[in-house]
Amino acid sequence: MCFVDNESKDETLEKLIEIKETCTTKVSIVEIKKKVNRELAKRAGARFMFNDFDLKHLGFIDANTLIEQKYNINEIVNSLCAEKDEIIAFDKNIKSRQRIKSTLYKSIFSLLDYFKSQDSSNNKFKQSIL
């Protein structure tokens, strides 16, 4: 898992470092020193992951979208682990329908698109509002 900090002005970077230190799995952080748009931040993370790991599939989640849509990050992470094979099949299906050659950046897919495509998943990730 790789987190990209796009020059956050709050305590995001500190929280990401804390997550990295407490996680039992490999967690990386890409720190962007100068604020860039979402697409360039996504590309920075992708570049890091492709350079450091031998990956056939690379999905991303935009944290701002999680917040805007009120998704529960814990549910998302649990589903990523439980539905890994289905997510890979989703990515393969997307790539099989593409008519153009898949480049590094075009091969990145949105994990939220996968979750949105699952009928029962749409509501299970929404946080309860009391």
What does this 3D model show about the protein?
The protein is α/β, with parallel strands linked by helices. It contains 7 helices and 4 strands. Strands 1-2 form a two-stranded parallel sheet. α1 (about 10-20) links the parallel β1 and β2. The model has no long low-confidence stretch (mean pLDDT about 85).
Short description:
This protein has 130 residues and is α/β, with parallel strands linked by helices. The protein contains seven helices and four strands; from the N terminus they run βαβαβαααβαα. The strands form two sheets. The chain has a two-stranded parallel ribbon with strand order 1-2.
> Into which percent range does the helicity of residues fall?
40-55%
Order of helices and strands: EHEHEHHHEHH
Task: Please report the distance between the alpha carbons of the first and last residues.
Answer: 31 Å
Assembly form of the protein: single chain
Rg: 15 Å
- The global form is globular
Q: Main beta sheet: strand number and arrangement?
A: 2 strands, parallel
- Structural class by SSE content: alpha/beta
Give the uncertain stretches in residue-range form.
none
If strands are numbered along the chain, what order do they take across the biggest sheet? 1-2
Alpha plus pi helix count: 7
